[in-house]
Structures are given as C-alpha cells and as structure tokens.
C-alpha cells in the first residue's frame, strides 16, 4: 500500500463525504450526521467551501496501488487543518506547501467556514449547535488568543488503519507548526487519543457530551 499525500480538489469532495460516513460510523456520529442524501451533499459542499478558504488546508492520503476493480478505496484518509491567524501587520500568512496566501483585505466570503449552520434538514439542528458550540468553547478555553494550528477533522478508512495514514496527515501540520514555533490543538475521541499521545500531544481537559467523551489535546513545539 504505497501512500502519497495530496492537496484535496473540489472533485474529491463527494468521495470524502462518503469516507466521512465510512470512518465515523459509531452511534454518536450517526446521530449527529444521519446517513441521508442531504447530509452527504452538505458534507461535500462544506469541504468544497473549506478548499476555497485560504485559512484552511484539506489534505488526503492516496493509496497509489488501489484497484477500483476490487472495490479498493483510492483515497484512504483525509484531514482538514485550520491555519494560524495572520501575524499582526503582515499582509500574508506563513502557510506553506500548497496553502494559499491570505491578504489582510481578504473578502469575508472567502473565509467562510464550511462546517457551520445551516445544518442539513435531516440533522437535529439543536443537537448540532450544542455539540459544535461546546467544542468551540473548549477550544477557546484551552488556547485563548494564541496563534495555533487546529485539526478540524481527521479520518482514516477502516481498511487502511494502523498503516501510518493518520501519522502522515498529522506530520504534515506538525512540521509546519514546528517551523513557525506555534502549538497545535485538536479534540480527540478516546479511540484516537493514543495515536496523538505518541505524536507528543498532551490532554488539557476532558469533556463528556451525552456519553461521547472527548479530550482537548495540545502539541507544543
């Protein structure tokens, strides 16, 4: 399984929406995002918005030996990174390797966050607002006004787990954070916690949302 990192393109987004459904298939995520056509379409549109957002970078891991005839997935992982805010009085970000430069006068619509309301009709909007609102509060509580990288979402196809896919996608951002001397924040499930701890992340707080436990974790260069 030779693996290669790529920057995602808009044509990838329907595949990535399906990969999200495949990767996050537990009861909580199924309740959060029901398996319905409008939810799939919402995910594809949300990811397309984030590809256009110069403060975000959507990367994929491709299995270059995948055989479609055997129904083997080509894209076996994806990660959405939020890049640090621009340094004060500097007209461009320090984003590298495919991440676009951002002018101080960047148009507001180009900075739109794909993962935000309005939620798909099939979703419980109140439930989504509670969950994502609390996640944002924990992020602010942990990081305050710092500049930092943030892992919005990271998923690996079940067929490609324990093959280094998640580590590849994490190292993409960790190397950039190390070069800039800034921290990295993420909210981890209990299943992913060990992977992140091996990469040097530390738990700063733990929250239980209707039985779904997540850890706020920080990596310091």
From TrEMBL:
Residues 90-221 form the N-acetyltransferase domain. PROSITE patterns: GNAT. One of its GO terms (molecular function) is acyltransferase activity, transferring groups other than amino-acyl groups. Keywords: Acyltransferase, Transferase. It holds the Pfam family Acetyltransf_1. InterPro entries: Acyl_CoA_acyltransferase (IPR016181), GNAT_dom (IPR000182), Trichothecene_AcTrans (IPR052523). This is Acyl-CoA N-acyltransferase. It comes from Aspergillus bertholletiae.
């Amino acid at each position: 399984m030779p693996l290669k990192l790529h920057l995602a393109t808009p044509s990838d987004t329907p595949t990535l929406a399906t990969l999200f459904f495949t990767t996050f298939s537990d009861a909580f995520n199924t309740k959060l995002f029901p398996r319905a056509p409008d939810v799939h379409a919402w995910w594809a549109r949300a990811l397309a918005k984030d590809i256009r957002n110069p403060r975000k970078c959507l990367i994929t891991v491709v299995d270059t030996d995948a055989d479609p005839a055997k129904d083997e997935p080509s894209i076996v992982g994806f990660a959405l990174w939020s890049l640090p805010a621009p340094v004060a009085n500097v007209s461009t970000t320090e984003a590298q390797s495919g991440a676009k430069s951002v002018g101080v006068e960047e148009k507001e619509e180009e900075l739109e966050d794909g993962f935000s309301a309005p939620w798909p009709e099939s979703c419980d909007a109140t439930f989504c607002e509670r969950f994502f609102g609390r996640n944002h509060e924990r992020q602010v509580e942990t990081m305050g006004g710092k500049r930092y990288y943030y892992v919005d979402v990271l998923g690996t196809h079940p067929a490609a787990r324990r093959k280094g896919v998640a580590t590849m996608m994490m190292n993409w951002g960790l190397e950039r954070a190390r070069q800039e001397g800034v921290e990295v924040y993420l909210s981890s499930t209990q299943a992913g916690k060990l992977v992140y701890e091996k990469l040097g992340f530390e738990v700063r707080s733990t929250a239980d949302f209707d039985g779904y436990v997540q850890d706020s974790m920080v990596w310091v260069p």
